[in-house]
Amino acid sequence: MIEIDSDLDLEAIANAVRSCPSISAISTPTSDADLGPVAISYDNASIDISVIAVYGFRLSTVVEQVESAIRILIGPRRLTVTVDDLDIRGAADPD
After folding, report:
1. How many other CB atoms are found less than 10 A from the CB of residue 54?
2. pLDDT in tens, 26-37
3. Could you give all domains of the chain from N- to C-terminal order, each with its CATH number?
4. Which among 15, 23, 46, 95 is least surrounded, fewest beta carbons within 10 Å?
5. Are 79 and 66 in contact (CB under 8 A)?
C-alpha cells in the first residue's frame, strides 16, 4: 500500500484548475476545503474537484485539462472531476 502525505496545497490546486480554458469557475464549497468558490474534497487516496465548465468543451477535455494542471500537485491520488454546471455565457468553439 502506498502511503501518501495528506497535506495538499489546496490554494495552488484551485488556482491551477481555474487556469484551465475549459473551466468557468470552481463550484461552491461542499466539504473539506473552504477557499471561496472552491469545492475540493480529499483524503490520502483520492481528491474530488467540482467545477463549472465552459459550454462547448467535451467532458473528456475538461477532465484532461484539470488532471494535467494538477497531477504534479496531487501525486498518485485518484482524481474525480465533477461538472456541476455549464457556463453558456463563455461558450467555447467546439473542440
Report:
1. 21
2. 765 444 554 444
3. 10-87 (3.30.70.1350)
4. 95
5. yes
